[in-house]
Design brief:
The complex is a heterodimer of chains A (about 120) and B (about 110). By secondary structure, chain A is an all-beta fold. Chain A contains no helices and 11 strands. The radius of gyration of chain A is 14 Å and the shape is globular. Chain A starts with a strand and ends with a strand. The radius of gyration of chain B is 13 Å and the shape is globular. The model of chain B has no long low-confidence stretch (mean pLDDT about 90). The chains are: A mainly beta (about 120), B mainly beta (about 110).
């Protein structure tokens, strides 16, 4: 099956610094990837849709200047949390569709990245 | 707009008992429906999906779900719970055609006790 990998799985940073999280599709090319944020004991909230070669589409209320998304290749999307603050601490999960699979809307998820901002 | 409602944020069952996790959806067009499972500090794994074929869908680990249009429901069941089933379960909906984003329910935490 399609495999999506995220790195790092855990990251701790100081307030004011920037952190980059990578999302890779290992065995397929993903023209579209999605970034979700999950607070403790809560559901997944879609942050943005990442499209290869074009600007990401952000959900309402998500600061695009704070959460920079780059999808420069068909197998890699990155999320950069700029000038991180403690309230940005969360579990970030990426997902992707495998276009070779008959389109059913199914998403394949990465393992998630837990960000802790001190 | 699409939405998903999962009734019961916490469900607790005994090992060997029936598991029933409830999901109701709202969609203006025929939906695609999914159940995902999440173990602590991990991403999501697909359990099963409904994409307008058979209304009774069988998934992995003995789970199944039935699409009932008249009730706008897609409840997840398993005849006999196992300790390893303890996890967070999410129901999600996507508009048919599958090009659209997934909208997730709030999740149900399943606890299985001996």
């Amino acid at each position: 099956g399609a495999v999506v990998s995220q790195h790092p799985s855990r990251v701790i940073c100081k307030s004011g610094t920037s952190v980059k999280i990578e999302c890779r599709s290992l065995d397929f090319q993903a023209t579209t990837m999605f970034w979700y944020r999950q607070f403790p004991k809560q559901s997944l909230m879609l942050m943005a849709t990442s499209n290869e070669g074009s600007k990401a589409t952000y959900e309402q209320g998500v600061e695009k200047d704070k959460f920079l998304i780059n999808h420069a290749s068909l197998t890699l999307s990155t999320l950069t949390v700029t000038s991180a603050h403690p309230e940005d601490s969360s579990f970030y999960i990426c997902s992707a569709r495998d276009p070779t699979v008959v389109n059913t809307g199914e998403l394949f998820f990465g393992e998630g990245s837990r960000l802790t901002v001190l | 707009a699409q939405s998903v409602t999962q009734l019961g944020s916490h469900v607790s069952v005994s090992e060997g008992a029936l598991v029933l996790l409830r999901c109701n959806y709202s969609s203006s067009v025929p939906p695609y429906l999914f159940w995902y499972v999440q173990y602590p500090n991990q991403g999501l794994q697909l359990l099963l999906k409904y994409t307008s074929a058979a209304t009774l869908v069988k998934g992995i680990n003995g789970f199944e779900a039935e699409f009932k249009k008249s009730e706008t429901s897609f409840h997840l069941t398993k005849p006999s719970a196992h300790m390893s089933d303890a996890a967070e379960y999410f129901c999600a909906v996507s508009e048919s055609g599958g090009y659209n984003k997934l909208i997730f329910g709030a999740g149900t935490r399943l606890a299985v006790h001996p």
